[in-house]
Amino acid sequence: MGRDPFARTGRRSPAHGRDNGSDGGGRLFPPVAWDAAEPAGSSGLTADGFSRATFLEAPVCDGCGAGFEFDGGAFAADRCAACLAKPYAFQRARAACVYDDASRDLILKFKHGDRHEHAPLFARWISRAAADLIAEADAVAPVPLHPFRLISRRFNQAAEIARPLARMSGLAYLPDAWCGRGAPTARAARARGGGG
Ligand SMILES: [Zn+2]
């Protein structure tokens, strides 16, 4: 792809300062990439890892955040066929990147491997992908984990991403805003035949 998702934001990339979880080491040594023991590029990944990842940028479906193959212009529907046929329970969503062979390992290490230090990187990716939603938001609230799942994973990954996302976006962080018995987005995804 060759695009730097942070190039147009004017923000510091995760390769600088504490945001890469390097305990400040990034100020003294070249930061290490998240996907391999090599120096990180401006995205926080190696150059190879970054070129393989598919970051979701406009045009995307305004409902689920899936990428549109073509920009249909001003008169095109802003929702994908799946969302038009069967809308999700939520109104709008965004995803940072496509979940595929290039991103799976990084995500699963964070999800199941206690790799908390990936959270600021994912928060920065989401802050870009969801910039239009964040601009209209008043606060950031993580979806809670079911208590049993919280025991097995030991931490709520959504909260680990939501906290730095709120901070870098200048929004309030409301960790207890959601209440329920589980993760509704995961259940909704499964109900639609997706992952979760
Ligand atoms: Zn959609």
Helix-strand layout with pairing:
Elements: H1 47-52, H2 81-85, H3 101-112, H4 119-129, H5 131-134, E1 139-140, H6 147-153, H7 157-169, E2 172-173, H8 184-191
Helix pairs in contact: 4-7
The structure holds zinc ion.
Question: Can you describe what's shown?
Answer:
With 196 residues, the chain is mostly helical. The chain has one domain. The protein contains 8 helices and 2 strands; from the N terminus they run αααααβααβα. α4 crosses α7. The protein is globular and about 45 Å long. The two termini are 28 Å apart. 28% of the residues are buried. The N terminus and C terminus are likely disordered. The structure holds zinc ion. The site of zinc ion (ZN) has 8 residues, from α2. The site of zinc ion has 8 residues, from α2.
Summarize the structure.
With 196 residues, the protein is mostly helical.
Question: What are the key terms here?
Answer:
two-stranded parallel ribbon; 2 strands; disordered N terminus; binds zinc ion; disordered C terminus; 8 helices; 196 residues; mainly alpha; globular
Distance between the termini: 28 Å
Radius of gyration: 17 Å
Count of extended strands: 2
**Class by alpha and beta content:** mainly alpha
Total helix count? 8
Q: Helix amount, in percent?
A: 25-40%
Overall geometry: globular
The low-confidence parts are 1-26, 192-196
Q: How would you characterize the largest beta sheet?
A: 2 strands, parallel
* Succession of helices and strands: HHHHHEHHEH
- Main β-sheet, spatial strand arrangement: 1-2
Arithmetic mean pLDDT: 76
**DSSP strand content:** under 5%
Each distinct ligand: zinc ion
Count up the domains: 1
